UniProtKB/TrEMBL annotation:
Domain of life: Bacteria
Name of protein: TetR/AcrR family transcriptional regulator
PANTHER family: HTH-TYPE TRANSCRIPTIONAL REGULATOR RUTR (PTHR30055), TRANSCRIPTIONAL REGULATORY PROTEIN (PTHR30055:SF219)
Residues in the DNA-binding region annotation: 24-43
UniProt key word Zinc-finger: no
All residue ranges annotated as the HTH tetR-type domain in the record: 1-61
Keywords, alphabetical: DNA-binding, Repressor, Transcription, Transcription regulation
Family matches, as InterPro entries: BetI_C, Homeodomain-like_sf, HTH-type_TetR-like_transc_reg, HTH_TetR, Tet_transcr_reg_TetR-rel_C_sf
């Protein structure tokens, strides 16, 4: 790898070990083996490099989530009951959330910085639609190329809202996380108007 790639890998490591805001340029240099001047040369600033690190880390995490089973019970994705598939995919995602706490903590930290960091907000805003499209593809068990843009916008936002909320909840109450089955049951009851029904 060249210095540019080394710096990005070092920044991603620092993101997990120290967090977004606490990482210094010297931390990145120590983690990457590059020199301080190379940050400015390749990325313009430490902040620009850290923005790229959070986006790259998120994309890598999203790509790994895309490898989760597309359907429950071994059925083909298109043949599976939608709620069964929904539950099975969430179970796999929740397992990742539970075992990758440093990544989740970094994601939640960045959410808190968005209101006061316009450049960070803009950088994440640019890739957010692609993330929603990827989530729709995962939950529907289809390639990204088959996801309708309107479905990606509406349903993708729904999945992103659930994912973000579950990430935050995992840091606050890790022992009280819902299962994929719980989420599917909640969705069924809400859409059937049975929220107050104990059945």
């Amino acid at each position: 790898m060249g210095h540019r790639e080394d710096l990005l890998e070092g920044a991603k490591r620092c993101l997990l070990e120290k967090g977004y805001a606490r990482t210094t340029a010297r931390d990145i240099v120590a983690a990457s083996g590059a020199n301080l001047a190379s940050i400015g040369y390749h990325y313009g600033s430490k902040d620009a490099l850290m923005r790229q690190a959070i986006i790259a880390s998120s994309e890598e995490w999203g790509a790994s989530v895309a490898q989760v089973p597309a359907a429950g019970g071994g059925a083909e994705a298109g043949d599976a009951d939608p709620l069964e598939r929904f539950a099975a995919v969430w179970d796999a995602v929740l397992q990742r959330i539970a075992t990758e706490r440093e990544f989740i903590a970094a994601q939640v930290e960045v959410l808190g910085l968005l209101p006061r960091d316009a450049a960070l907000r803009e950088a994440i805003g640019e890739v957010l639609p692609e993330g929603g499209e990827g989530l729709v593809a995962v939950f529907e068990g289809v390639p990204d190329t088959e996801v309708d843009p309107e479905a990606a916008r509406i349903v993708g936002s729904f999945y992103q809202a659930l994912l973000t909320g579950l990430m935050v909840q995992s840091l606050l109450t890790p022992d009280a996380m819902p299962s994929g089955r719980d989420l599917a049951t909640a969705l069924r009851r809400v859409t059937a108007g049975e929220v107050l029904d104990a059945k």
